[in-house]
Design a protein that fits this description.
The chain is α/β, with parallel strands linked by helices. The chain is built from 11 helices and 11 strands. It has 2 domains: 183 residues, Rossmann fold (3-Layer(aba) Sandwich); 113 residues, 3-Layer(aba) Sandwich (Rossmann fold), CATH 3.40.50.460. Bound molecules: 6-O-phosphono-beta-D-fructofuranose.
Length: 320
């Protein structure tokens, strides 16, 4: 049985990473295992910033955003030589398996290290974009969606007061999940995502007609990968001649105390990853499929592109 494992956070931080780390550490200790934390992601792995953790290391942690282990990108880990260095550092501490919390790119890096050198790896999906293939859910996505909805609620108040058009740019370079989910939940008139095309002239015409019929405001949620909200806002103001404002939410979407859903799901995934590793499982990603915790082959999770649920796209149009 595997007794000595390590955990690191990689990619971009997201709310719930700390709750997940807490679950990983406490599950490992509860099951008689030793657990090390790798500080500062893959860069820290290469620099041997590896420290054994105990139950108290993760106290006062479940409610905190960010990741207490830190995150740093490492170009060297993209090279085989770098991955060998990382592997050697783990072996030096007697570590027999690695858990990586992050997006699919981060998990893929560890998967490659596993294939090259035989270090068992288990991935836990953590990204506000909810774009990891094979899982309905990624850690942080619920908190981020709530942050965006909160902003939409506030922006609606001022948009309505001034009869303005308001564009809200949200994160999501290739995935519109965050924009779409928050757009539907926030009651936006339009949700623009990278996955579907939109016609700016048609949108402007519809907004003009809505205003002529007495509508007081229009809210457009724009995923950063669909368009620049700043540019789009200028065009919309020009074409409609209606006062238009743009808000770019930026990195506030990545911070904050995790929601109950993110805390619970992060805890479930953290526990599952450790138990799977203890059972000798490797090269999997743990995730959720219709409410159940599942295991997904790491190659499938990291080599496939998750698509946006077409039901969401349809619903957003119906309710606009
Ligand atoms: O976490 C993903 C993401 O939020 C993207 O949507 C966004 O473009 C990017 O991270 C920004 O990352 P950085 O921290 O490098 O600015």
């Amino acid at each position: 049985m595997i007794k000595k494992i390590a955990v690191l956070t990689s990619g971009n931080d997201c709310p719930g990473m700390n709750a997940c780390l807490r679950a990983v550490v406490r599950t490992a200790i509860h099951n008689g295992m030793h657990i090390w934390g790798v500080h500062n992601g893959y860069r820290g792995l290469l620099a041997d910033e590896i420290e054994e953790l105990n139950t108290r290391s993760v106290g006062d942690m479940i409610q905190r955003g960010g990741t207490f282990l830190g995150i740093a990108r490492s170009g060297e880990f993209f090279e085989e030589e770098g991955r060998k260095q990382g592997y050697d550092n783990l072996v030096k501490h007697g570590i027999e398996g690695l858990i990586v919390i992050g997006g699919s790119g981060s998990i893929k890096g560890a998967a490659t290290m596993s294939q090259e050198f035989g270090m068992p790896v288990i991935g836990i999906p953590g990204t506000i974009e909810n774009d990891v293939w094979g899982t309905d859910y990624t850690i942080g996505s619920d908190t981020a969606a709530n942050t965006v909805v909160d902003a939409i609620n506030k922006l609606r108040d001022t948009a309505s007061a001034h009869r303005r058009i308001v564009l809200i740019e949200v994160m999501g370079k290739t995935s519109g999940w965050l924009a779409m989910t928050a757009g539907i939940a926030g009651g936006a008139e339009y949700v623009l995502v990278p996955e579907t095309k939109f016609n700016i002239d048609q949108i402007c015409e519809e907004i003009r007609q809505d205003y002529a019929a007495g509508k007081r405001y229009s809210l457009l949620v724009v995923a950063e990968g669909a368009a620049s909200a700043t540019e789009l806002g200028k065009q919309i103001q020009e074409k409609t001649e209606i006062d238009t404002r743009v808000t770019i939410l930026g990195h506030i979407q990545r911070g904050g105390s995790p929601t109950v859903q993110d805390r619970i799901n992060a805890s479930l995934l953290g526990e599952k990853a450790v138990l799977a590793m203890a059972e000798g499982k490797k090269d999997i990603v743990v995730g959720f499929d219709t409410g159940e915790v599942v295991e997904i082959p790491i190659d499938e999770a990291t080599n496939n592109k998750k698509t946006l649920d077409t039901e969401f796209i349809r619903l957003a149009k119906v309710l606009a």
